[in-house]
Each structure stands twice: as structure tokens, then as C-alpha cells.
Amino acid sequence: MFEQVKLNYDYSDLEPAIDALTVETHYAKHHAAYTKNLNSFAEKAGVIDQDIEDLLGSLDAIQDAALRTAIRNNGGGFYNHNLYFSTISPNGGGEPGGTIGTAIDKAFGSFAAFKEQISALAMGQFGSGWAWLETASDGTLSISNSLNQDNPISLGTGKKPLVAIDVWEHAYYLKYKNLRADYVQALFDIIDWKIVDENYKKRVG
Ligand code: MN
Question: Sign (positive/negative) of CA torsion 9, 52, 167, 174?
């Protein structure tokens, strides 16, 4: 059974970066639907008790092609939004310190360069998808983007996502309309680097 991450904030707490109605619709409708659908398809495929990262990393093991696609899409939607909603908070923003801050400087030269590069990937994602800060198992950071609900795990890259920038229109259209760049910029006001740092340290041991 897969469960939606609990929010550590109210729907309105991410304003002005993201408006309350967008957070509520995104979490209680879109994310809830991915979760419900994943549970339904995973039950049918006999993978309901798997770890979600193991499941997304071994989609080829699901024989039935329609079930495999449904679990790729809904499992990705479940996992990606759990990461998204748990790494943004009213306490977010600013520049990362700690282990993740040092690793970002090492990989990209500076936080400003990282922000510019991942924002460009988010802007360059045609249609619906995501931009990622991801880590290899040795802690090396990189960035990527992906279509629909794919992510570095389901794409078999061997990397694990740390920061998720949702560029589906449902993530920003109520407030930002077609201005995706303004939404991506605002998202940097709520990315909680303390949480990202904790997740990163767990990843690299
Ligand atoms: Mn979304």
C-alpha cells in the first residue's frame, strides 16, 4: 500500500510562491489520484508491497504491458509528488549550506550557476514533465529533465532525485498562467535545503 506523504504545512502556507488553491488541487486531487491509481494497478500486478524505488527501478519485471505503463505513470506520479511536496516548505528558500551546499558548488561551480542551469532545463522541458537535481551513489550531483511522470529511477539512470521541479501546467497555471519561468523562479523561495541536505546525506551514507 502506497501512501501520500503528509504535508508539514497548510495549503496557504506556500504563498506567495504557490497559491493555496493550486497546492490543494495539486495535492488533494492530482497527487491523490496518482496514489489511488497506483494502489489499484499495483494490487493487480502483485507489487503492492514493494518499495516504490525498487518498483520504479524494475518496471521491466511487470509482464503485462498495459499494467507496466500504468505503474510507470502512476507510480512516477506518486513518487515524484511525494518528493516535491516534502522538499518545499514555508521555511525554504535561500542558498543551501551543509553537505549539499558544498556538493552543489563542486558540481556546478556555484549555487547561482546551478540555479541557472536547472531553471533552463525546467524551461526547456517541452510539454509536461520535471527537472531534477539528482545524485549518483557516490554523491556526485547532476541535473536532468524528463517527460510526463518519468524520473531518474524509472529511466534507469542509476541516479536518485533530490529536488523535483514539477513543470506540468497543473503545478502553476492557476496563478502563473503561461509564465512558467516566474513559477520556477518562485519555487526557489520554498525549496527547503535543510530537508534536501538530510535526504542527500541519507543517500550517500
Ligand atoms: Mn504535479
Answer: negative
pLDDT tens for 94-129 read 999 999 999 999 999 999 999 999 999 999 999 999
Query: How far apart are the CA of 76 and the centre of ligand 1, in A?
Result: 10
Distance 37 CA to ligand 1 centre (A): 15
- Both 106 and 187 in one domain: the answer is yes
* Amino acid found at 98: G
Do residue 39 and residue 133 come from a single domain? no
Question: How many angstroms separate the alpha carbon of residue 165 from the centre of ligand 1?
Answer: 9
Quick one: pLDDT band at residue 8, thresholds 50, 70, 90?
very high
Q: Could you tell me the residue range of the domain that residue 118 belongs to?
A: 98-204
User: Which 8-state DSSP code applies to residue 52?
Assistant: H
Q: What is the pTM of this model?
A: 0.97
Using a CB cutoff of 5 Å, list residues around ligand 1, an ion: 166, 168, 171
Cell, residue 200: 542527500
